[in-house]
Design goal:
Number of helices: 10
Strand order of the largest sheet: 2-1-3-4-5-10
Radius of gyration: 19 Å
Number of strands: 12
Structural class: alpha/beta
Bound molecules: NADP nicotinamide-adenine-dinucleotide phosphate
Strand content: 15-25%
Order of helices and strands: EHEHEHHEHEEHEEEHEEHEHH
Helix content: 40-55%
Distance between the termini: 41 Å
């Protein structure tokens, strides 16, 4: 019997994972951060020893990329030290861990998609903290860790680029978006399905890349959202990253190669435009719901 502990079940990704666990009728618990703070080793240990999961899915993270430049230690608390806690406690009871990492472990200078063995070189503190989290898992329980690197995550819950742009598109507002950073948007629902597929198929542990298929710039993504919402894409103005004042540097190119995922045959990976179009109506409904509150 699979017993699953979901950490971070209220986030963009975690809320979709929670829905998949509910749909799959799985034996799971998804404590809120107020009931289980993963930075608190004793709290985590007590909880895990009581529930005895054989899978822990870690969707918790410090995800404020610019904030990590000033609050590096707080980012490390969650993205490195809490991951060490999870790894050590999981090892104690022989649980497998699925942990989410990021394309920001790369510096964006590669001429081709990054595979799982490509050299890492984070450009910012967030990427550095996430990389250190990966290393904690590899150090303490490499044999039972699944590290999934993903990029440009969006979904119905939480604050994300797609939701922000869809809100502006629905109001026919103009927006300025960078056109010199390229990557792959990832639907949190697709990634959540991918995570449950790992639990169901139990491939060889290791690092896996997962994002939707294809690539675009943030500008192209914004134009696609404007069109899908029925707004005029000419309201989207392309700008260069250098004209934006941001604390953290971002990689210009962060395409992830999904060859390993596909060869392992875990799930089919949908094209980013198809996934975006299928999730947008729910995202828009969520925006309207929160505006009428
Ligand atoms: N967002 C992106 O574009 C992106 C891109 C690449 C990779 N990723 C990675 O994908 C994963 C999921 O990201 P996300 O965007 O879904 O994150 P998110 O929306 O920011 O959610 C973070 C989750 O962590 C929980 N959390 C925060 N502090 C906690 C604590 N001390 N103890 C327990 N739980 C805590 C939050 O709970 P509360 O709401 O209760 O605080 C929330 O459920 C992360 O590993 C992230 O690094 C994200």
């Amino acid at each position: 019997m699979k017993r699953i502990l979901l950490l971070g079940g209220s986030g963009i990704l975690g809320s979709e994972v929670l829905s998949q666990l509910q749909l799959g009728n799985m034996d799971y618990v998804a404590p809120q951060s107020s009931d289980l703070d993963v930075r608190n080793r004793k709290m985590l240990e007590d909880f895990v020893l009581r529930f005895k999961p054989n899978w822990i899915i870690n969707c918790t993270a410090w995800t404020n990329v610019d904030g990590a430049e000033e609050s590096f230690d707080s980012a490390l608390d969650l993205n490195e030290r809490a991951v060490r806690n999870i790894a050590e406690v999981a090892k104690q009871i022989g649980s497998k861990v699925i942990h989410i990492s990021t394309d920001y472990v790369f510096d964006g200078t590669s001429p081709e998609p990054y595979d799982e063995l490509a050299p890492v070189a984070p450009l910012n503190n967030y990427g550095e903290s996430k990389l250190r989290g990966e290393l904690q898992l590899l150090k303490h329980m490499q044999e039972a860790s699944y590290i999934i690197r993903t990029s440009w995550l969006y979904g119905i819950s939480g604050k994300n680029f797609v939701k922000t742009i869809a809100t502006k598109a629905a109001k026919n507002e103009s927006v300025r978006v960078v056109d010199d950073q390229r990557g792959s948007p990832t639907s949190a629902r697709d990634l959540a399905r991918a995570i449950t597929a790992i639990i169901n198929t139990t491939p060889e542990p290791g690092i896996f890349n997962y994002s939707n298929k294809g690539s675009c710039s943030w500008f192209e993504l914004a134009c696609t959202i404007y069109k899908a919402v029925g707004s005029n894409p000419e309201l989207v103005e392309a700008i260069s990253s250098s004209s934006l004042v941001q604390k953290a540097k971002r990689p210009r190119y962060s395409l992830l190669s999904k060859e390993k995922w596909e060869l392992t045959g875990i799930t089919e990976i949908p094209e980013w435009k198809i996934s975006l179009e299928s999730l947008l109506p729910e995202i828009i409904a969520q925006i309207q719901k929160s505006e009428t509150r």
